[in-house]
Amino acid sequence: MHRFFTKASLAVAGAAALVAAAAPATANAATAPVLYVEAAGLADCPAGSVCLWQHINYTGFMAGWRAGTYTPDFRTIKCSGCSGGDFNDDASSWANFTGQKYCVSAGINGGDPDNTMPAPSNGPFTPDWNDRASSIGFIGCP
Ligand SMILES: [Ca+2]
After folding, report:
1. Structural domain of residue 56, as residue ranges?
2. Does some domain include residue 2?
């Protein structure tokens, strides 16, 4: 199991976020998940983050986002154990520990359709949403 979300990396991520805010040319940093964990559990999703897991019951690969960050295309999230080698169309459970209403979408760049994840809440995706999430945003669903 590899964990990349150490206290040290949190401090670095915070510094990077400040740099990104001061230099919009590097704004892509705000769109990248800040946390990846293999063989994860619910406890691996930190307070203030929203997380998606490869399997139900918060297991398998996990991608997590600090409040206010998002990813418009899950094909950019590499996951060697996921179908197709990326996290697109793989998420089966979720948790939203941010104070924000997150939205997952079956479409790249949102829509097609959307699914609201209110905060705070967590659970498995319903069967019609299993292995469908392709993007995530933090301003709620349209
Ligand atoms: Ca899955």
Report:
1. 7-137
2. no
> Which of 135, 136, 102, 97 minimizes the C-alpha distance to 117?
102
How many whole angstroms from 10 Cα to the centroid of ligand 1? Answer: 27
Using the mean position of ligand 1's atoms as its centre, give its distance from the Cα of residue 104 in Å: 14
Which of the two residues, 131 and 24, has the higher pLDDT score? 131
User: Is 17:29 a contact under the CB 8 Å cutoff?
Assistant: yes
Residue with tokens 């209110």, as numbered in its chain: 118
Distance 48 CA to ligand 1 centre (A): 23
The pTM is what? 0.78
Q: Is residue 72 part of a domain?
A: yes
Residue 12 lies in a domain: yes
Looking at residue 76, the DSSP 8-state letter turns out to be G
Average pLDDT over residues 61-84: 94
Q: What is the CATH number of the domain that holds 71?
A: 2.60.20.10
Q: How far, in Å, is the centroid of ligand 1 from the Cα of 28? A: 26
For the stretch 27-68, pLDDT in tens is 455 666 678 888 889 999 999 999 999 999 999 999 999 999
The domain tally of the chain equals: 1
- What residues pack around ion ligand 1 (CB closer than 5 A)? 90, 92, 131
